[in-house]
Amino acid sequence: MKKDLLALGFIVLAIALILSGTKFQTVDEYYMTHIDDITPDSKTVTISIRCDTILDNWNDLVPELQSDEFVPQDGVILPETAYVLREGDTAFDITDRAVRYNKIQMEYQGANMNSYGSVYIQGIHYLYEFSCGPLSGWMYRVNGVFPNYGCSKYELKDGDIIEWVYTCDLGRDVGCIWMGGEWEEE
Amino acid sequence: MKLFATYHPSVLLVYFIGVIGITMFTMNPLLLLISFLGAFGFAIQLENKQIVFASFAFYIPMFFLISVTNPLFSHNGVTPLFFLNDQPVTLEAMLYGAAIGGMIVSVMYWCRCYNLIMTSDKFIYLFGKVIPKLSLVISMAIRFVPLFIKQIKHISTVQKTMGIYATKSIVDRVLSGFRIFSAMITWSLENAVDTAASMRARGYGLSGRTNFSLFRFTLRDGIMLSVILALLITALIGNNMGVLDYSFYPRMSRIQISPLAIITYITLLTLLFIPFVVEVEENRKWNYYISKI
Questions:
Q1: pLDDT at A93 over 80
Q2: Which of A152, A98, A153 is nearest to A125 (CA)?
Q3: Domain range spanning residue B204?
Q4: Residue B131 falls within a domain, yes or no?
Q5: B14 and B110: one domain?
Q6: Which of B22, B190, B253, B261 could form a disulfide with B243 if both were Cys (CB 3.0 to 4.6 A apart)?
Q7: What is the mean pLDDT of chain A?
C-alpha cells in the first residue's frame, strides 16, 4: 500500500506539472485584446489579409470551404487597418493582435515546433495550407517585398505595410519573385 | 458452431473485407453508428454476453482517449470551446475525434468477430495453395493477439500460484505485468519460429501436397455471395455519387437525406446486419424446434 501511495503522489505531481504549464482561457478572454489608441506621435503599421487568388481557382478549393462564409466574395478577410507598433514587435505579433481583435480564426505552428525557428501560419479564417491545391498557403509581404523568412523574425518599423495573401501557386500568382522567378529561369 | 461460420470461407472473406473496408474509409457518423451496431450485435450473438460487455471496460476508455486527444492536435473548426496555450479546442475537433474513436472501436469489434468466424484453417484453405508463405504469415499475424492474450493469462496464473507479486498493490501488479510482457515477447518470437518450422516439417507449400478440407461451395453460398456483392456494389455506387460525403471541418456538414442517400443507407444497413440477422433467425428456428420436442 505504501508503494501505491507513492506512485499516486508521483502521478498527481506529474499532472500538476503539466497543468501548471498549460494556459486555459475562455473564448472571451482569448479574444479580449487590448489595442492601443492611435495618437499623433505613435508609430503605426498597416495590415491587411486577402485571399483573392482563391476566387480565380475556385474549382481547386476543397468542397467544404466553397461558400461565402469562408471565402468572402471580394477576397478581403481583413481590410487595410492601422495598428500601433509596440517596441520590438514582429510581423507575427501585429498579425496575432489584429486577428484576435477582429475575431478571425488563425492557426499557427509555434516557433519552437519547426526547424526554422519561426512561427508558421497554417491557416487564417479556416483557409489552410493546401486547401486550394497542392501549392497553396499563406504568404506575407512587407512594403511589397516577400521576405524569405518567417513572420516572427521580421521586426517592423514605423509605417510598414504588411499584407497577408493567399497563394494557390507557390507565390507566383501573388507576384513573389524569389521562388517563382528562380524556378522559371532554371 | 454458429450458422454464419458454416458459409464457405470465400463468402466470409469477401464479407469481412467489405465491411471492415467500409468502416475504415468512412467518416460519416450515421454509417459508423450503423457499422458499430452491426458489429456489436454480431459479437453478442457469437460470444457470451458478459464477455462482450466486459470488453467495454477497454473500449470505452479508448474511445474517450481518442476523442480528447484529437482536439489537442487539430484546431480547425468554427466553434471554439476554450483556448489551451493560445490554441482553440473546438467542438468540431472533439466530434471528429469521437468519430475516429467510434470507427476504431467498430473495426475492433468486426475483427473480434472475424477472429471467431474466420479461423486460420479457413484462411490457409483459401490462400495456402496460391501464396503459401504470405498466407501463413498473415494467418499467424491475425492469430497473434488472441494467442498473446491467452498465453498472458496462463503465465500470470502460474506466477500468482508461485506467489510472485501476488499482493493487492497496484504498483506490484503493474510490475508483474511488465515481467510477464517481457517473457511474452520472447515466447511469441519463439512460438512463431516453432510454428514456421513445424509447418515446414509437414511439407507445407511443397508442390504435389494435397489438403483435406470440408469446405464445399454450395448453392446457399452462391446466393449469399451474390447478395453481399450486390449490396456492396450498390453502396459503392451510392458513395461515388457523393451521398455519403461528410466533413467535420471547418463546419460540420449535414447528413444528406435525398432518396438516393436513403437507398444507400438502407443498402448498408442490410449489408452490415446480415450476420446478426442470420444468427437471430437461426436461434429463432432452434427455439421453435425445441419447443416441439
A1: yes
A2: A98
A3: 143-210
A4: no
A5: yes
A6: B261
A7: 88
Q: What is the largest CA-CA distance in chain B?
A: 72
Contact A126 B250 (CB under 8 A): yes
Both B25 and B77 in one domain: the answer is: yes
**High-pLDDT (> 70) share of chain B, %:** 100
Task: Give CA A36 to chain center in angstroms.
Answer: 20
pTM for the full predicted model: 0.86
Contact check, Cβ <8 Å, A30/B88: yes
Same domain, yes or no, for B31 and B167?
no
Beta-bridged to residue B59, according to DSSP, are: none
* Nearest residue on chain B to A109, alpha-carbon basis: B87
List the single residue in B with minimal CA-CA distance to A104. B78
Q: Which three cell numbers stand for residue A83?
A: 495598428
Asked, for residue A3, whether it belongs to a domain, the answer is no
This model of the complex carries an ipTM of 0.84
Q: Which residues of A touch B68 (CB under 8 A)?
A: none
DSSP A22-46: --EEEHHHHH----PPP-TTS-EEE
pLDDT band, very low/low/confident/very high, at A185 (cuts 50, 70, 90) = very low
Per-residue confidence band for B89, with pLDDT thresholds at 50, 70 and 90: very high
Query: Does the pLDDT value for residue A179 go beyond 70?
Result: no
pLDDT at B38: 95
Say yes or no for a CB contact (<8 Å) between A128 and B76. Answer: yes
> What CATH number should be reported for the domain holding residue A158?
2.170.130.30
To the nearest whole angstrom, how far is the Cα of B39 from the nearest Cα of chain A? 31
Q: Which of A4, A23, A64 has the CB atom closest to B171's CB atom?
A: A4
How many structural domains comprise chain B? 2
Rounded mean pLDDT of B209-229? 91
Q: Which residue of B has its CA nearest to A126?
A: B250
